[in-house]
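Design job #97: recover the sequence.
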């Protein structure tokens, strides 16, 4: 199986696992799933030269923001899978191990902490939110779940390749 196919299946699968966690955490923990429409709003303002908002929820909506946000979410998941497979190689997908997946998965929390949250008005590592420690913990857990998703999706990719 080639690099592109492995990356696509692994990235989409891992992101889907992360989304299932987002849905499950509401009944389990009382935490609402992320609103990727707000991510789309943030991205939608970028071509207009606006990269930072005081509070993204209060910024004007952007046409197609939900689609933009969800597409970005999956494209970013694919990009992070590309990093994993780029570092550990397609051979990792043929024999996946948990440690590289968790290193990349947990490492991806740097993106929301240092880029997305500050840009959307939540501050570095959610420092401007009402409960920063809780927000940070939820981000860390979600990105660890993404790491487990990378691992699980690599097993699915391996299975599909062997069929």
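Job complete. Output follows.
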């Amino acid at each position: 199986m080639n690099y592109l196919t492995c990356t696509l299946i692994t990235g989409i699968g891992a992101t889907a696992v992360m989304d299932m966690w987002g849905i499950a955490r509401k009944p389990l923990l009382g935490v609402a799933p992320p609103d990727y429409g707000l991510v789309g709003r943030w991205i939608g303002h970028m071509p207009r030269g606006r990269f930072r908002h005081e509070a993204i929820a209060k910024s004007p909506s952007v046409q197609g923001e939900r689609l933009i946000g969800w597409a970005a979410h999956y494209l970013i998941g694919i990009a992070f899978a590309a990093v994993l497979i780029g570092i550990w190689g397609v051979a990792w997908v043929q024999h996946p191990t948990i440690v590289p997946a968790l290193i990349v998965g947990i490492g991806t929390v740097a993106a929301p902490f240092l880029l997305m949250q500050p840009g959307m008005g939540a501050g570095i590592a959610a420092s401007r939110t009402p409960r920063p420690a809780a927000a940070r913990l939820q981000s860390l857990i979600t990105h660890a779940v993404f790491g487990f998703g990378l691992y699980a999706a690599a097993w699915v990719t391996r299975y599909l390749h062997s069929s």
